[in-house]
Protein backbone atom coordinates (compact mmCIF):
# COMPACT_ATOMS: atom_id res chain seq x y z
CA UNK A 1 0.00 0.00 0.00
CA UNK A 2 1.36 3.42 -0.97
CA UNK A 3 2.42 5.77 1.83
CA UNK A 4 2.19 8.78 -0.49
CA UNK A 5 0.98 11.86 1.36
CA UNK A 6 -1.74 14.06 -0.09
CA UNK A 7 -2.80 17.66 0.18
CA UNK A 8 -6.60 17.75 0.39
CA UNK A 9 -7.89 21.29 0.02
CA UNK A 10 -10.88 23.39 -1.13
CA UNK A 11 -11.19 23.98 -4.85
CA UNK A 12 -11.25 27.76 -4.24
CA UNK A 13 -7.50 27.67 -3.62
CA UNK A 14 -6.98 26.99 -7.34
CA UNK A 15 -8.18 30.50 -8.13
CA UNK A 16 -5.32 32.36 -9.80
CA UNK A 17 -3.15 29.28 -10.29
CA UNK A 18 -2.45 29.94 -13.97
CA UNK A 19 -1.19 33.47 -13.36
CA UNK A 20 0.84 32.66 -10.23
CA UNK A 21 1.23 28.91 -9.63
CA UNK A 22 3.91 29.28 -6.94
CA UNK A 23 1.66 31.51 -4.85
CA UNK A 24 -1.26 29.10 -5.24
CA UNK A 25 0.85 26.10 -4.24
CA UNK A 26 2.22 28.04 -1.27
CA UNK A 27 -1.31 28.90 -0.14
CA UNK A 28 -2.39 25.29 -0.56
CA UNK A 29 0.52 24.07 1.56
CA UNK A 30 -0.22 26.59 4.33
CA UNK A 31 -3.90 25.68 4.37
CA UNK A 32 -3.25 21.93 4.54
CA UNK A 33 -0.58 22.24 7.22
CA UNK A 34 -2.85 24.44 9.32
CA UNK A 35 -5.87 22.15 8.96
CA UNK A 36 -3.77 19.15 9.93
CA UNK A 37 -2.38 21.03 12.95
CA UNK A 38 -5.90 21.32 14.36
CA UNK A 39 -5.90 17.55 14.88
CA UNK A 40 -2.85 17.69 17.15
CA UNK A 41 -3.59 17.62 20.87
CA UNK A 42 -0.53 19.16 22.48
CA UNK A 43 1.38 22.38 22.04
CA UNK A 44 0.72 25.99 21.16
CA UNK A 45 -0.97 26.85 17.85
CA UNK A 46 2.41 27.84 16.42
CA UNK A 47 4.09 24.72 17.77
CA UNK A 48 1.41 22.48 16.31
CA UNK A 49 1.66 24.34 13.00
CA UNK A 50 5.41 23.63 12.86
CA UNK A 51 4.89 19.99 13.85
CA UNK A 52 2.27 19.62 11.15
CA UNK A 53 4.71 21.10 8.65
CA UNK A 54 7.31 18.53 9.70
CA UNK A 55 4.79 15.78 8.92
CA UNK A 56 4.72 17.00 5.31
CA UNK A 57 8.46 17.85 5.26
CA UNK A 58 7.54 21.51 4.91
CA UNK A 59 9.07 24.51 6.62
CA UNK A 60 8.04 28.15 6.29
CA UNK A 61 10.48 31.06 6.33
CA UNK A 62 8.16 33.02 8.63
CA UNK A 63 6.05 30.49 10.59
CA UNK A 64 4.01 33.05 12.61
CA UNK A 65 3.04 34.91 9.45
CA UNK A 66 2.29 31.67 7.59
CA UNK A 67 0.13 30.52 10.50
CA UNK A 68 -1.87 33.76 10.48
CA UNK A 69 -2.42 33.62 6.71
CA UNK A 70 -3.40 29.95 6.88
CA UNK A 71 -5.87 30.58 9.69
CA UNK A 72 -7.47 33.43 7.73
CA UNK A 73 -7.88 31.20 4.68
CA UNK A 74 -9.33 28.39 6.76
CA UNK A 75 -11.88 30.64 8.45
CA UNK A 76 -12.95 32.33 5.21
CA UNK A 77 -13.63 29.19 3.19
CA UNK A 78 -16.96 27.43 3.83
CA UNK A 79 -16.58 24.13 5.65
CA UNK A 80 -18.53 22.20 3.02
CA UNK A 81 -16.62 23.57 0.04
CA UNK A 82 -15.76 20.93 -2.58
CA UNK A 83 -12.30 19.50 -2.06
CA UNK A 84 -9.68 18.05 -4.34
CA UNK A 85 -6.47 16.14 -3.69
CA UNK A 86 -2.88 16.60 -4.80
CA UNK A 87 -0.14 14.16 -3.90
CA UNK A 88 3.13 15.62 -2.70
CA UNK A 89 5.12 14.22 -5.62
CA UNK A 90 3.11 16.32 -8.05
CA UNK A 91 3.18 19.29 -5.68
CA UNK A 92 6.98 19.32 -5.55
CA UNK A 93 7.27 18.62 -9.26
CA UNK A 94 5.24 21.71 -10.13
CA UNK A 95 6.91 23.85 -7.47
CA UNK A 96 10.50 22.96 -8.33
CA UNK A 97 10.42 22.40 -12.09
CA UNK A 98 9.54 24.57 -15.05
CA UNK A 99 6.15 23.70 -16.48
CA UNK A 100 4.48 24.73 -19.70
CA UNK A 101 1.16 26.51 -19.67
CA UNK A 102 -0.41 23.33 -21.01
CA UNK A 103 1.07 21.32 -18.12
CA UNK A 104 -0.54 23.75 -15.69
CA UNK A 105 -3.97 23.72 -17.30
CA UNK A 106 -3.91 19.92 -17.37
CA UNK A 107 -3.16 19.86 -13.65
CA UNK A 108 -6.15 22.15 -13.08
CA UNK A 109 -8.36 19.85 -15.17
CA UNK A 110 -7.19 16.81 -13.22
CA UNK A 111 -7.82 18.50 -9.87
CA UNK A 112 -11.16 19.80 -11.11
CA UNK A 113 -12.26 16.29 -12.08
CA UNK A 114 -11.13 14.95 -8.70
CA UNK A 115 -13.21 17.59 -6.94
CA UNK A 116 -16.27 16.57 -8.96
CA UNK A 117 -15.77 12.85 -8.43
CA UNK A 118 -15.22 13.10 -4.70
CA UNK A 119 -15.65 9.56 -3.39
CA UNK A 120 -17.75 8.42 -6.35
CA UNK A 121 -16.46 5.71 -8.67
CA UNK A 122 -17.59 7.66 -11.70
CA UNK A 123 -19.77 10.57 -12.70
CA UNK A 124 -21.04 12.54 -15.66
CA UNK A 125 -19.47 15.94 -16.25
CA UNK A 126 -20.14 18.85 -18.59
CA UNK A 127 -17.47 21.15 -19.96
CA UNK A 128 -18.97 24.15 -18.16
CA UNK A 129 -18.85 22.25 -14.88
CA UNK A 130 -15.24 21.23 -15.40
CA UNK A 131 -14.09 24.68 -16.53
CA UNK A 132 -15.71 26.16 -13.43
CA UNK A 133 -13.79 23.87 -11.10
CA UNK A 134 -10.56 24.46 -13.01
CA UNK A 135 -11.03 28.15 -12.26
CA UNK A 136 -11.56 27.55 -8.54
CA UNK A 137 -15.32 28.09 -8.68
CA UNK A 138 -17.73 26.01 -6.62
CA UNK A 139 -20.77 26.71 -8.80
CA UNK A 140 -21.14 25.93 -12.49
CA UNK A 141 -20.82 28.94 -14.74
CA UNK A 142 -23.51 29.82 -17.27
CA UNK A 143 -21.29 31.65 -19.74
CA UNK A 144 -17.62 31.17 -20.60
CA UNK A 145 -17.16 34.91 -20.05
CA UNK A 146 -17.44 34.24 -16.30
CA UNK A 147 -14.07 32.48 -16.33
CA UNK A 148 -10.72 34.11 -15.72
CA UNK A 149 -8.83 35.07 -18.87
CA UNK A 150 -6.23 32.37 -18.26
CA UNK A 151 -8.74 29.52 -18.06
CA UNK A 152 -11.10 30.98 -20.68
CA UNK A 153 -8.31 30.56 -23.23
CA UNK A 154 -8.79 26.80 -22.93
CA UNK A 155 -12.58 26.81 -22.66
CA UNK A 156 -13.31 25.61 -26.17
CA UNK A 157 -13.82 22.25 -27.83
CA UNK A 158 -10.37 22.00 -29.43
CA UNK A 159 -8.40 22.76 -26.27
CA UNK A 160 -10.71 20.67 -24.10
CA UNK A 161 -10.15 17.63 -26.29
CA UNK A 162 -6.38 18.15 -26.08
CA UNK A 163 -6.57 18.37 -22.29
CA UNK A 164 -8.76 15.27 -21.97
CA UNK A 165 -6.46 13.28 -24.25
CA UNK A 166 -3.47 14.28 -22.12
CA UNK A 167 -5.26 13.22 -18.94
CA UNK A 168 -6.17 9.89 -20.52
CA UNK A 169 -2.63 9.22 -21.71
CA UNK A 170 -0.60 10.48 -18.75
CA UNK A 171 -2.87 11.09 -15.76
CA UNK A 172 -4.73 7.74 -15.66
CA UNK A 173 -8.11 9.28 -16.42
CA UNK A 174 -10.80 6.88 -17.64
CA UNK A 175 -13.05 8.75 -20.06
CA UNK A 176 -16.11 7.93 -22.16
CA UNK A 177 -18.41 10.00 -24.33
CA UNK A 178 -20.90 8.75 -26.92
CA UNK A 179 -24.02 10.53 -28.13
CA UNK A 180 -24.47 12.28 -24.82
CA UNK A 181 -24.38 15.79 -23.46
CA UNK A 182 -21.32 15.80 -21.28
CA UNK A 183 -18.95 12.91 -20.66
CA UNK A 184 -18.27 10.22 -18.09
CA UNK A 185 -15.05 10.07 -16.06
CA UNK A 186 -13.49 7.80 -13.47
CA UNK A 187 -10.19 7.35 -11.69
CA UNK A 188 -11.08 3.95 -10.24
CA UNK A 189 -12.97 1.93 -12.84
CA UNK A 190 -11.82 0.16 -15.98
CA UNK A 191 -12.91 1.62 -19.31
CA UNK A 192 -15.19 -1.35 -19.89
CA UNK A 193 -16.91 -0.88 -16.53
CA UNK A 194 -17.33 2.85 -17.13
CA UNK A 195 -18.88 2.24 -20.55
CA UNK A 196 -21.19 -0.37 -19.02
CA UNK A 197 -22.46 2.08 -16.39
CA UNK A 198 -22.85 4.90 -18.91
CA UNK A 199 -24.78 2.77 -21.39
CA UNK A 200 -26.91 1.26 -18.62
CA UNK A 201 -27.87 4.76 -17.54
CA UNK A 202 -28.61 5.73 -21.14
CA UNK A 203 -30.88 2.68 -21.55
CA UNK A 204 -32.70 3.53 -18.33
CA UNK A 205 -33.25 7.12 -19.47
CA UNK A 206 -34.57 5.97 -22.85
CA UNK A 207 -36.93 3.48 -21.21
CA UNK A 208 -38.28 6.17 -18.87
CA UNK A 209 -38.73 8.55 -21.79
CA UNK A 210 -40.62 5.88 -23.71
CA UNK A 211 -42.88 5.19 -20.73
CA UNK A 212 -43.61 8.90 -20.44
CA UNK A 213 -44.43 9.15 -24.15
CA UNK A 214 -46.78 6.19 -23.84
CA UNK A 215 -48.47 7.74 -20.82
CA UNK A 216 -49.01 11.04 -22.64
CA UNK A 217 -50.24 9.25 -25.77
CA UNK A 218 -52.66 7.13 -23.73
CA UNK A 219 -54.09 10.21 -22.04
CA UNK A 220 -54.65 11.91 -25.40
CA UNK A 221 -56.21 8.77 -26.87
CA UNK A 222 -58.64 8.44 -23.95
CA UNK A 223 -59.60 12.10 -24.32
CA UNK A 224 -60.36 11.48 -28.00
CA UNK A 225 -62.50 8.47 -27.07
CA UNK A 226 -64.53 10.61 -24.69
CA UNK A 227 -65.11 13.14 -27.46
CA UNK A 228 -66.22 10.57 -30.03
CA UNK A 229 -68.58 8.72 -27.66
CA UNK A 230 -70.38 11.85 -26.42
Automatic annotation (TrEMBL):
The organism encoding this protein is: Flavobacterium soyangense
* UniProt protein name: Uncharacterized protein
Superkingdom of origin organism: Bacteria
Query: Coiled-coil stretches, from where to where?
Result: 188-215
Which keywords does this chain's UniProt record carry?
Coiled coil
